[in-house]
Amino acid sequence: MESAESSYVSSPEAPRRRSSPPPPKSPTSDTMEKPTYVKFLVSNAAAGSVIGKGGATITDFQSQSGARIQLSRNHEFFPGTTDRIIMISGTINEILKAVELVLTKLLNELYSEESEDVELKTKLRLIVPNSSCGGIIGKQGSTIKSFIEDSQAGIKISPQDNNYFGVNDRLVTLTGTLEEQMRAADLIISKLSEDSHYTQLMNAPFSYPAYNAVSYGPPPPNGPPNGAAGKFQDNKEDRNNSTSVTIGVADSHIGLVVGRGGRTIMEISQGSGARIKISDRGDFISGTTERKVTITGSQRAIQAAETMIMQKVNYASERALD
Predict the structure, then answer these.
(1) What phi, psi does 125 have (nearest 5°)?
(2) pTM of the predicted protein model
(3) pLDDT of residue 210
(4) What's the rounded Cα separation, in Å, for the pair 165 and 220?
(5) Checking DSSP bridges between strand 83-90 and strand 290-297, what pairing results, if any?
(6) In terms of Cα–Cα distance, which of 136, 137, 120 is closest to 46?
(7) Residue 313's closest CA among 269, 248, 245, 249?
(8) Which class for 131: exposed (0-12), middle (13-18), buried (19 or more C-beta within 10 A)?
């Protein structure tokens, strides 16, 4: 059923009918006033913009919205990515105001840079517990389809990634204009706030200490539960058992893996603890047009780096299909 759950995304070619099906039931005033939260991803660079010099921006956003805004620490990423986590808590209206402030700032900065890949960066990726995704999907997909129809945003729920031990969260990706994304976020957050299990997790840690900046792999079987032994620099066995794996990446996707000025590949290398080397232009895996990407490090570092590289490639492939 995972493929069905993860395939709900609005089609750009679909006619925009707002009349049917009927819009989702509006949350009650009690729900609107009840404290809740939302978590979503931002790049490490974007996190600095949200915080601002001396914390001025985040303080201003909290003051304007009335919501509390927290970020995971520098290089403390969501497993399998090089993105930090923002958690915003408060009433639904406070949260939505804060989310809009954050997204507006990031969009303005992207457009001011006249970046060629602005489109790739304007997706809102919410982090939702796997146990709460069923409520968003609804019976036979009825709820998520109504959310797509109402908001006109694309809404896609990722399959649960079983590569990361103890991580029970999934990504709900929203695409479209800022207005469409905000409407979809409103519908989803309102729905989640009705889920008692979801609201109970508001005070749970929102970072993933076992998957820190230098190792995303699960902690060793006999290691401490907090994942401290998973740190690459503290694990001599990993350093001494270095090995290499070569994977193929389509030549057209190498730019996404490298990033502007090599920033993406540097983040992947730092995030995983692996060394990454890409073959020269024209140096393909025999019989293909795929460049050779050689990953060197411990088994855990290689797995983490490969996951992050393939996520970049798959992201581009999914976008091409949308």
Answers:
(1) -110, 105
(2) 0.59
(3) 52
(4) 11
(5) unpaired
(6) 120
(7) 249
(8) middle
